[in-house]
Amino acid sequence: MISASTLAALLALGHGVLGQQAGTSTAETHPPMSYQKCTTGGQCTTVNTNIVLDANWRWLHSTSGYTNCYTGNTFDQTLCPNNQACAANCALDGADYTGTYGIQASGNSVSLKLKQGNNIGSRVYLINGDKYELFKLKNQEFTFDVDVSGLGCGINGALYFVKMDADGGLAKYPTNKAGAKLGTGYCDAQCPRDLKFIAGKANVEGWKPSNGDANSGEGNTGSCCAEMDIWEANSISTALTPHACSTNGPCTGNTTCGSGDSRYDGYCDKDGCDLNPYRFGVQNFFGPGKTVNSNQKMTVVTQFITSDNTATGTLSAIRRIYVQNGKVIQQADTNIPGITKTNQITDKFCKEQKAVTGDPDEFSEKGGLAGFGKDLDAGMALVFSVWDDHTANMLWLDSTYPVGSNKVGAARGTCATTSGKPSDVESQQANAAVTFSNVKFGAIGSTYKST
Length: 451
Hints:
Elements: H1 4-14, E1 21-22, E2 35-39, E3 43-47, E4 50-53, E5 60-62, E6 70-71, E7 74-75, H2 83-89, E8 90-92, H3 97-101, E9 103-106, E10 109-113, E11 115-116, E12 119-120, E13 122-128, E14 131-132, E15 134-135, E16 140-147, E17 155-162, E18 197-198, E19 201-202, E20 208-209, E21 217-218, E22 221-224, E23 227-233, E24 238-243, E25 249-252, H4 253-257, E26 286-287, E27 292-293, E28 298-306, E29 315-324, E30 327-330, E31 344-345, H5 347-357, H6 362-365, H7 368-376, E32 380-388, H8 395-398, H9 422-428, E33 433-443
Parallel strand pairs: 1-8, 2-33, 26-27
Antiparallel strand pairs: 2-3, 4-13, 5-8, 6-7, 9-10, 10-33, 11-12, 13-14, 13-32, 15-32, 16-28, 16-33, 17-23, 17-32, 18-19, 20-21, 22-25, 23-24, 28-29, 29-30, 29-31
Helix pairs in contact: 1-2
């Protein structure tokens, strides 16, 4: 009798080229979402782009039929006895964006629903043709409108940038046959190990199904890269956070991936240098009915300042501005002993923040803003997502974390420390959704009206 592993190996050889395959069962049609490029003086032109769903959410089935390669949080051991065979035997397929995932996109907006049927959350990228649209942020500003009024405790409606390959890894990893058009190549500063495919191969080796998440697990490999969290938010709290990395690319095991007790040993700064107004002493600034009223749509402006005001200069500050009901609102100054009052992210702020909170200063160790700025030079891919948190219940964003701590910076929002459990979030906020719209990108001062 032939063993399952031998059968799978023979099937892999039968495909000729070993690689992450593209399926043909469901036609992939990328929903439209445009943005605007702006020049000094506020002259803006429309760029016609689309969105594409991340590969991790897609149906993964056998190339020779419709057998699931992945069900719940486990791989099929016949089709996926190892990373290479799984990549040859399995194909990613097209997506029903609205029906399966609750994603609505048209014009210049995209709306992401937390729960659609059995699907939870989503992650999409801006794509132009068959490549991700890359943004070079230095000496530029990035602006968008957002409505987080429908996001309660435990949900994160996020907009951010990551240092992904524009083609999703097609050129770098020849075994990747799906590419950006099917949402491959994701990476971020958390070095995620829950990705089913990394670097053109499956992540089945060492895969352990999650105890708390029926749809997820972790393999031996993670996918690391620099990350700029422009917007992590719900209606309670928001954070602006750059995450630097010493190495961009796959990691293996706890040490280089920074997993478990090795959090501060990995390639990337997982904590980042975050600016959350509530966390740093301004509790009346953001939230329902506050200075920036999260019950209403708002415009969010983020500026990337360089030392010489050029795109080749050293990144020296990251600034945040809001516009709401026609009023320009500057980010509030920090109000914490030990941190010099500031409303922007600078190396000084990052060092002082870590000193007063007692958190390891990984951001400075990995190069600070200057080092992070080098990762911005190649251009970064734009990500929109909505998710709940099976690891920490999103308490790090909107509650007190660690729970029970009275350290400076532990209080991050008004949510109860018992909130955010995914089972509660998904049952009580099943219709929660976030809408991003009116994205603009260009010269400093070009994407919003300052008066």
